[in-house]
Amino acid sequence: MSSATISTTTLLKRNPDMVAANIDGDVVMMGVDQGQYYGITGVGSRVWELLAEPISIDGITEIICREYETDPATCRDDMSTFIKDLMKIDLIEIVE
User: Fold this and answer.
1) What is the CATH number of domain 3-91?
2) Are 92 and 51 spatial neighbours (Cβ–Cβ below 8 Å)?
3) Does position 4 have pLDDT exceeding 60, yes or no?
């Protein structure tokens, strides 16, 4: 499914084929099939943590706004962009 079809209520989760480790608060992962390494830092590491269980962009936004001082509209836009970027490189997938 294309990332263009993701709404803020679409449930998402980590790609189970990714091998990830938390190193000093940053997430480092490798796609076994892709053979590539990826890194996520800052708030992105917290989002990755939240994606361990199915969650929507709205759910992520609610938690991030509660944990960090940020404007909900800006946060939702940032989370939407981040999620679409993760989808493009197959780090996350839509819950079917």
Assistant:
1) 3.90.930.60
2) yes
3) no
Over residues 86-90, mean pLDDT: 91
pLDDT at 31: 77
Please state the three-class secondary structure of 13-80 as a single string: EECCCEEEEEECCEEEEEECCCCEEEEECCHHHHHHHHCCCCECHHHHHHHHHHHCCCCHHHHHHHHH
Mean pLDDT computed over 40-44: 93
Say whether 10 sits in a helix, a strand or coil: coil
Please check whether residue 16 is in contact with residue 96, taking contact to mean a CB–CB distance below 8 angstroms. Answer: no
Domain boundaries, the chain: 3-91
The pLDDT of residue 18 is 87
Angle (CA) 81-54-2 rounded to 5° is: 45
